[in-house]
Amino acid sequence: MSPLDLLMAAPLGFMAAALMLGPSGRWLILLAAPLMAGLALWLALLPPDAAYLVGQWDLPLGILLRADGVARLMILATALVIGAVGLHALAEPPEKPGHAAQAETFWPLVYLMWAGANAGFLTTDLFNLYVTLEMVSLAAVALAAMGSLAAALRYFMIALLGSLAYLLGVALTVARYDTVDVILLAQVAEADLATLLALGLMTAGLLIKAALFPMHGWLPPAHAAAPAPASALLSAIAVKLGFVILVRLWFEAFAAVTGPAALHVLGGLGAAAVIYGSIQAMRQDRLKPLVAYSTVAQVGYLFLAFPLVAGTVEPSGAWAGMTLHGVAHMLAKAAMFLAAGLMLKAVAGDRIADLGGLAQAMPLTVTAFGLAVVSLMGLPPSGGFTAKFLLLSAAIEQGAFLYAGVLVIGGLLAAVYLFRALSACFAPLAGAGPDTASRGPVTGGVQAVAPLALAGLAIVMGFAGTALVDVSAIEAPWATPTVIQPEAAP
Amino acid sequence: MTFAFDLILCLMILGTAAIALFVRDALAAIAFFIAFGNLMGLAWLGLDAVNVALAEIAIGAGVTGVLLILARARLLALGDAATSTGSPLLLRLGALAACAGFVVLLAAAVLSIPPESGLDRVVAPLMPGLGIENRVTGVLLAFRAYDTLLESFVLLGALVAVWSLAPAGAWPGRPADPGMADAPMRRVAGTFGQLLLPVALVMAAYLVWAGSDLPGGAFQAGTVLAGGLLVAGMGGTIGLPSSDQPLLRAALVLGPVVFLAIGLAGVAAGGLLVYPAGLAKALIVTIEYTLFLSIGVTLALLVAGPPMPGASDPDPEGKG
Amino acid sequence: MDLPLPVLLSTGHLYAVTGAALVGLGLYAFITLRHPLRQLLAVNVVGAGIFLILGGLGRGPDATDPFPQALVITGIVVAVALTAFGAAMIVRQAQTRAAAKPAADDNENPAP
């Protein structure tokens, strides 16, 4: 047994078990959360070259699973996020009142997303990634549909287009190279028409899934309307798989093919996303759309890092900054959506102005929201700060002052829109006396502890900086020649 | 097959696709889509890919066609004819230019790649070790079994996703009656269903068995079973099942779970999805039989749609 | 019958180029058609085109590569799964719109 297969198999087992158990399947999360966290930790502690071929079939044909640094960190964060979101959802039912179907199907869908995300982070096979991408997208759309069917349908259609673009790119790659393995492709890829078109198509499809500006249009309505636990999973998990596949494509499989100009296109889109998402977030007067637009901005940083990673001979800093930003955003954004969900349940409306008095009424939840704000803004100490600091120093070192400027401005804009939401919680309650609010909301329990724990982890990341930087470098494409040397087929 | 045949077939494929996409009436569009799917099946035969031809005709044309017909009928009942309405001329011109340019680029890329069966040379020497003849089955259930395993859960997940759409108060419940048959048709379907279901079962079981060595396999067989179940369900031979029946749930998860269990048991022999020497064929056939059953039931329920309130349910339970 | 055409285009390329044309046709339809059910149909045409590219380019002199064939079968099954879910969403959306005159609020409000 190895965590490489159990991390995929266990959630699928839980999915089937949840279906067999029906309404009581929800309790499985009590088992799944610690088990998956344990497996993820085991994965993180494996020796650096941990990898194996599924079914022992050699590479051009078979599928390789590999625990590189990105996979280790993403899977650990996924286990923490889904575990916490699941425990939160156990205490705070995610469905619309009376929707028994949503209450029951929520769980198998969560496990499907979990398995798909883990399998996707671990595999080096582009077609296998297509299947995992569909596992995650399917679950994501279904979870989004629990809030707004119209937004979910729009998400579905655009995600379908993204899947097809990715699949077409994979098809061209199969035909051109007779392999879809990232490691083998890195050895043989050439910059010809078919390859460039394939890379362009796969990239376009994945940018839709990762919601990079200007392909973000589907995200805010879907993420804002979904039930809070679903929003947390959509923002934390679903957009990250597309990002990780892009990392595999651009820095590994087709690293020899991608030029600096193309990397700056991605970086430029990322920078535009930071600015655009932040401005849109500032313009929102409802809480959940604000948090959703913040995701649009935060996704931008991931791609802003692309040219910074490629633009230096010693990319470990930028690489770690990019990876840790992904992880910190997962933790902080999931915490923020969970906290926002609790806050909105406690007040009458969904506007930021309605949040008055909550700091007294539900201090734990507002604290969780506040800690998430710290990490998302990039204030020290936090995972967000470590990541932004690494990216900023890489940008300055390379003389990429435009990117450095966007990093700084993005942080300032985040301060503006996030503090607006946070300070509203400290405002005195409008109209009624403060005690009316304190009676309604739940101030303790798992549902309040879960976002607090996630936000706390995002802060704690700030103290584990060097250890995390080391993990992120495991098997990184730039670090060492890949240890895995699959022999060529006869 | 001659080149002339291939050429005419390709032109017909493009023609039926164009009509299916742009004809005003939705039913005509779906009819042409089904014709398109069948011609695609022929194209796959032309490419000597009989396994894919069966899958394309059964699933691509058959199941997808029935799905679309049913969706269109349900929309029509709500006053939505799903006719294609024109979009602004400027958008059409822009899209036309963009798509034409894209096709030229794509065709150029496609023509730059010589057609080759490169991996066939890798697959062929590995087949004797599996004890089966059908190379596509070998790829699906051995060399790329991991894809297939995950895919079986995608199919299951799609049904869960469809179920999640059940309106408040309809859970647990039965799907709405497909309503595609009037009373006399229903009697025909009833009689026919009694005959067809066992025949479909036998035929499907044969397709799975044949799939080891001849074209066929779990997915194609599952579709045959789904077809039998749907006709039988429409005619009342078997009732549309309630979503919470334990037997139904077991039938749905059986195939994927057996696949997963066999995959994990492989760890004893060296790793995930490793088949011990000599046991490969037995394990593959076990996976295929259980998978086919689950696929058949899942596809039938996917076509039927989410549980609906009061759908042939004597005691609507309200909120669970 | 022996036409001079085979010299210009191999069987594999013929089908692959047909696939490319199907992708373009379907994409154009996806952009210009407004009804989601028709868009779903267009997506299926694009998918079929992609599969045909895979098959055509896997067409060797004596056999078609089983590897892309298996990928296509996997792809067909994923496509039908997504189509089923999409069709169900489209129907449910139409039903909700037809049924609920007082539009249901999208935010979940607890019943304390």
Automatic annotation (TrEMBL), chain A:
The keyword Membrane applies. It is a multi-pass membrane protein. It holds the Pfam family Proton_antipo_M. InterPro entries: CPA3_Na-H_Antiporter_D, NADH_UbQ_OxRdtase, ND/Mrp_TM. The keyword Membrane applies. The chain crosses the membrane at residues 27-45, 70-91, 103-121, 127-146, 153-173, 193-212, 232-251, 257-278, 290-310, 330-349, 361-380, 400-419. Residues 124-411 form the NADH:quinone oxidoreductase/Mrp antiporter transmembrane domain. Keywords: Cell membrane, Membrane, Plasmid, Transmembrane, Transmembrane helix. It is found in: Cell membrane; Membrane. Its main location: membrane. It comes from the Bacteria. Belongs to the CPA3 antiporters (TC 2.A.63) subunit D family. This is NADH:quinone oxidoreductase/Mrp antiporter transmembrane domain-containing protein. It comes from Rhizobium rosettiformans. The lineage of its organism: Bacteria, Pseudomonadati, Pseudomonadota, Alphaproteobacteria, Hyphomicrobiales.
TrEMBL record, chain B:
It is found in: Cell membrane. It is a multi-pass membrane protein. Pfam families: MbhD (PF13244), MnhB (PF04039). Residues 11-75 form the MrpA C-terminal/MbhD domain. Keywords: Cell membrane, Membrane, Plasmid, Transmembrane, Transmembrane helix. The chain crosses the membrane at residues 6-23, 30-47, 53-77, 89-113, 153-171, 192-212, 218-240, 252-276, 282-304. Residues 191-301 form the Na+/H+ antiporter MnhB subunit-related protein domain. Belongs to the CPA3 antiporters (TC 2.A.63) subunit B family. PANTHER family: NA(+)/H(+) ANTIPORTER SUBUNIT B (PTHR33932), NA(+)_H(+) ANTIPORTER SUBUNIT B (PTHR33932:SF4). This is DUF4040 domain-containing protein. It comes from Rhizobium rosettiformans. The lineage of its organism: Bacteria, Pseudomonadati, Pseudomonadota, Alphaproteobacteria, Hyphomicrobiales.
From TrEMBL, chain C:
InterPro entries: CPA3_antiporter_subunitC (IPR050601), NUOK/Mnh_C1-like (IPR039428). It is found in: Cell membrane. Gene3D superfamilies: 1.10.287.3510. The keyword Heme does not apply. The keyword Coiled coil does not apply. Signal peptide: none annotated. It comes from the Bacteria. It is a multi-pass membrane protein. The chain crosses the membrane at residues 12-33, 40-58, 70-91. Keywords: Cell membrane, Membrane, Plasmid, Transmembrane, Transmembrane helix. Belongs to the CPA3 antiporters (TC 2.A.63) subunit C family. This is Na+/H+ antiporter subunit C. It comes from Rhizobium rosettiformans.
